[in-house]
Amino acid sequence: MTDAQETAAETALRTTGGGPPDDGVAVDGVPIPLLEPREGIPPVVATQEALDEVIAAFAAGTGPVAVDAERASGYRYGQKAYLVQLRREGAGSALIDPVGCPDLSGLGAVLADTEWILHAATQDLPCLREIGMIPNRLFDTELAGRLAGFPRVGLGAMVESVLGYALEKGHSAVDWSTRPLPEPWLRYAALDVELLVDLRDALEKELDRQGKLEWARQEFAAIAEAPPAPPRKDPWRRTSGMHKVRRRRQMAVVRELWTARDRIAQRRDVSPGKVLSDAAIIEAALALPPNVHALGELPGFGGRAGRRQLEQWQAAVDRAKALPESELPQPGQPVTGPPPPRAWADKDPVAAARLSAARTAVSALAEQLNMPQENLITPDTVRRICWEPPKPATPETVGAALAALGARAWQIKLVGPLLAKALTASA
């Protein structure tokens, strides 16, 4: 444990008077197992009447609210929430079933002016938004850990290194759409929010000690204010193994199979991978099978696949094979930014030199500040500035360009002068 982590852990101990039993950090380096929620496993809220009671309790609570959500990734279609966990001083913990209570906007409304504590907020916010829960303010304990320089920032690792408790993480990848939810899963879910408030308080003090608290606040505000991500353009291009597909006709097969699979998965409410694997789609695209028999011989299409299933996949292949040349997809995606860095030396050696100097400067500063480079400034932002630098490249003009690309004020103040120097030195 680093000095910073020890300081944070000691701070946490002083601030968790109402914390779990056996207050204390790891004894002789051994974390204390956290086996039960302090008030026991709360009942699952699945009716409007029970939800109204939770809303009233959390409205009367004090301080920030810890929030988490469980999805059924790999089992169900999409990223819908199947369990929402909350904890707040004065209200205790709550487990809410979004299947029985699909509209949580009433709960979101009473917590609108409250700080929400989430771990890896960008993962949970989309599914929370779908059910009416949208924070105005938040504290992301994973991002706080990154900024503070912790080497491992998973929730279990953070709770262990900062607070000295060991969380049981065995149910993180289960099918949370299962009903009824088994008691061990509910215990795990309740424990995920058990110490989030304590963790938040300890990390806030550690960030303040390092002089990074204002940076974190700007980052949290950017997450809370970010609009929903637009639908991804041509999502079929992200099929695993797509790099093997070179010909446009083969790309059309990937597109048709991906689209057919997605339609079936959505109708059945199952993960697309359970309908047809990415590997099978790529095999069919490369082989361009002439008929159902040939398709059935390919990896991923044999086994339990019935004649009817094979016919629907072959129909997709045949549609792609019948397309006129003008309707075939183009290789790659439209380039909206600079080319890949590996091509810079040939396309623009001066720009390549700028990028090398900028990367070196950013890497050195990130190491000095003890944080990942991507949290200091995104690599894409650095590439864009170096490919098309402002003229003249002064700290002011570079700062304006960074702001236009979404950089926060703290990032501009730290990185702007470095980039301006790198741009002018390599001109």
Q: What is the fold's blueprint, element by element?
A:
Elements: H1 3-15, E1 32-34, E2 44-45, H2 48-60, E3 62-71, E4 81-89, E5 92-96, H3 105-110, E6 115-118, H4 121-130, E7 137-140, H5 141-148, H6 155-163, E8 165-167, H7 183-194, H8 196-210, H9 213-225, H10 248-268, H11 272-275, H12 278-287, H13 292-296, H14 307-322, H15 344-347, H16 349-369, H17 373-376, H18 379-387, H19 395-404, H20 409-425
Parallel strand pairs: 1-8, 2-5, 3-6, 6-7
Antiparallel strand pairs: 3-4, 4-5
Helix pairs in contact: 1-8, 5-8, 6-8, 10-12, 10-14, 16-18, 16-20, 19-20
Report on this structure.
Residues 247-327 form the HRDC domain. InterPro entries: 3'-5'_exonuclease_dom, Exo_C, HRDC-like_sf, HRDC_dom, HRDC_dom_sf, RNase_D-like, RNaseH-like_sf, RNaseH_sf. This is Ribonuclease D. Residues 1-25, 323-342 are annotated as: Disordered. It holds the Pfam family DNA_pol_A_exo1. There is one protein chain. The protein has 427 residues and is an alpha/beta fold. The protein has 3 domains: 3-225, 2-Layer Sandwich (Nucleotidyltransferase, domain 5), CATH 3.30.420.10; 235-327, DNA polymerase, domain 1 (Orthogonal Bundle), CATH 1.10.150; 341-425, DNA polymerase, domain 1, CATH 1.10.150.80. The protein is 52% helix and 9% strand. The chain contains 20 helices and 8 strands. The chain has helices at 3-15, 48-60, 105-110, 121-130, 141-148, 155-163, 183-194, 196-210, 213-225, 248-268, 272-275, 278-287, 292-296, 307-322, 344-347, 349-369, 373-376, 379-387, 395-404, 409-425; strands at residues 32-34, 44-45, 62-71, 81-89, 92-96, 115-118, 137-140, 165-167. The strands form 2 sheets. The protein has a 6-stranded mixed beta sheet with strand order 2-5-4-3-6-7, sandwiched between helices. The radius of gyration is 26 Å and the shape is flat. The model is unreliable at 1-24 (pLDDT under 50).
